[in-house]
Each structure stands twice: as structure tokens, then as C-alpha cells.
Amino acid sequence: MSLTIAGSKSALRPGLQASFGAQGGTAPYVFSCSPYVAGVSGAGGTIDPATGLYTAPPTVRTDQRNFYDQVTVTDSTGAKATTSILVGWSWMMVLDVLRQDLGLDPEHCYFWDQKINMPEDSSLILVVGISRAKPLASNLVAAGDPVEGGGPGWDQVTSYTQVNSSLDIHVYSRGMDASFRLAEVFASLQSPYSRTQQSANGFYLSKIPRNAVDASLIDGAAIPYHYVVSCEMIWTHSKTLTPPYYTQFPQPVVELIQA
Known about the structure:
Elements: E1 4-7, E2 11-12, E3 17-23, E4 30-35, E5 46-47, E6 53-55, E7 68-74, E8 80-87, H1 93-102, E9 109-111, E10 125-146, E11 154-173, H2 177-180, H3 182-189, H4 192-201, E12 203-205, E13 211-214, H5 216-219, E14 225-241, E15 253-254
Helix pairs in contact: 1-3, 1-4
């Protein structure tokens, strides 16, 4: 049986862990971690070479080429198997949902960077972007250990911000994949895997997209098939601050969306 590798998760938020295991090949196995894209730093996670326990870094890199780490397992004969893992904030898990449900690699499913990778063959490419963002609510929650002998102060505070965004999924291809697989993009937003990721990572996708615009005529012959699928997304960003200590916390400040 040929050597294969699989992980308990394919995407993680900073600081969390996932387990990787191997099947086939010849034991014992050794696990290693490296950047998914050669020549860049990668997500920066670490892995236990014996157990395959992967730990995501505490922060997310700004260059999207560094969103992914490649995890490799090597058996006693030198045979290797690889897979990838995404490290990102909650809203970035949308990319993982689309990749897993449509079976795309990172080179064919990525975030908008103003310089999209033009399709070189008939393969499907998905480009995800946020066209609008509006804060809904924010609050501070005491964290860490109490100070001043158990008094009202705390040595940490966690800031939470809830954001409503418009998510645009650009569906490209030179061949007819964009047309043939457009329904799969709709389905992926409400798939069981999508619901699991939303629940685990603190974001919510509207199950019915607002629209799907045919943008093929805008691109011309360079990209003959181009659709834009738009939906609403609510996600929560959190950050833990560690000043000397806090003694009181304001009530959550709520801003309602105007009609």
C-alpha cells in the first residue's frame, strides 16, 4: 500500500493544533513541516516529528503566499507523502471551505490581491474578495489572572469585534469549467463541511447568495468564462491585549446597520 497522509484539520486559526497521521508505506514515520510555496516563509507552524501534532503560529502572515504550510511524512524507506494546511483568521476559513468542497489546490483558490493569476489552461480558478465591511458590535472581556490580591483588576483583556461583510467569489476559467461548476460554488456555501467550519471558527455565511453576475464580457477573450457570486458574511475577530492590568471594562458598544 502506497504512503498517504491525512490531517484532523485542513485549516486552523493562530495558536491552535491539528493531528496528522500516515497510512501505508513502512513504519516508522517522520513528520516535517515546510512552506507550501518554495522561496517564502510559509505560515510558520511547527510539527512534532514523531507524533505528527502540528501547532499553528500565534499570528497570521500578511503575504497570502505564506498562509499555507506543507506537512510531509517520510517512511523508513524514504518514501514521502505531503498535504497542506491553512493558517488564518475566522473569515479566511471560507477559502478552505471552497478548496475542500471543489477539490482545488492553493494555486487555484486564493484571496484577491489585485493581480490575479490568469488561467493558463481550462482549469477552474476561484478568487475570493471582500467588497464591503461594516462593524456590528465590539466588547472587551477580562482575561488572564486577577491582580491586586484578587481584586477587580486583570492582567489581560480580550477585544472582540463582529463584522458584517460582502463576500465576492470570482469564478474563472478559459474552458467551460466556470459554467459547469458554478452550481458547486453555490452548494459549497451550505455544505456540511461549510457548516462545520462556520460553527468551529466563528463566522456565518448566508446560505443563499445575493446574486451571480456574468462578467465574461468585461474580460473579453482573455478569460471567456467569469462569474461573480456574492453573499453576506458575519465574522468575529478577537485579540488579547496584555497591558499592566485593567481595572474596569466598558459594556459592549453596539452599532446597528442602517436600512
